[in-house]
Design a protein that fits this description.
This protein has a single domain (6-195), classed as P-loop containing nucleotide triphosphate hydrolases (Rossmann fold), CATH 3.40.50. Helices cover 33% and strands 21% of the residues. The chain has 5 helices and 7 strands; from the N terminus they run ββαββαβαβαβα. The chain has helices at residues 36-44, 86-102, 121-132, 149-163, 184-195; strands at residues 6-12, 25-30, 62-67, 71-75, 106-114, 137-142, 173-175. Strands 1-3-4-2-5-6-7 form a 7-stranded mixed sheet, sandwiched between helices. Strand 3 and strand 4 (71-75) form a beta hairpin. The longest helix has 17 residues, at 86-102.
């Protein structure tokens, strides 16, 4: 898939205020500081479509981007914020679950995982929550350039083993790097398959 156009549409805190359900949507979510904005920018070939920040938890809204006038890329708030109040955490959780459970045009959610760290309970809980609601998703391991190929493989295998405690069949997985562009073709190809 070639990305010919990518433009920001709107941000909001309520799925009811999202654009009309007239295009397929692909959502991106992960823990704070997982490299989501960098991955989105790499994917669409734009340096600053999604705002990157050294401060984790910058995305606090549902952000819609229109790609190729054909589909929406949706940048969701992160989960597992250590440095925000319980009230903020609850508000973010409501924004995310409201969107994921009610958005009719949502086709697939890309769950981003930092390949450098051990499987985290918050990631596993979120993945199990998606599964329990029958929501299709793919795991995207970020920062693949930060480890050797062997360490990346070991990390992905470790995550798979953690998931096998609750999953009979593992979800699709891809390793990515916003620096090298690794995973870009696989992710765009996966989206293209859904678009048919």
């Amino acid at each position: 898939m070639k990305i010919k156009s990518a433009k920001f549409l709107l941000s909001n805190t309520d799925y009811k205020k999202c654009p009309a359900d007239d295009k397929p949507e692909f959502a991106f979510i992960g823990r704070s500081n997982v490299g989501k904005s960098s991955l989105i920018n790499m994917l669409v070939g734009r340096k600053s479509l999604a705002k990157t920040s050294g401060k984790p938890g910058k995305t606090q809204l549902i952000n819609h981007f229109e790609i190729n006038q054909q589909w929406y890329l949706v940048d969701l708030p992160g989960y597992g914020w250590a440095k925000v109040s319980k009230t903020s955490r609850k508000a973010f959780a409501e924004i995310i679950t409201g969107y994921l459970l009610n958005r009719q045009s949502l086709v697939n959610t890309f769950v981003l995982i930092d390949v450098r760290i051990e499987p985290q309970p918050v990631d596993l809980e979120f993945i199990n929550w998606l599964g329990s609601h029958g929501l299709p998703f793919m795991l995207v391991f970020t920062k693949g350039d930060k480890l050797s190929k062997q360490k990346v493989q070991r990390s992905v295998a470790r995550f798979g083993q953690a998931l096998q405690q609750t999953w009979e069949e593992l979800p699709p997985m891809v390793v990515s790097s916003a620096v090298t562009g690794q995973g870009r073709e696989e992710l765009l190809g996966y989206i293209e398959l859904w678009l048919g």
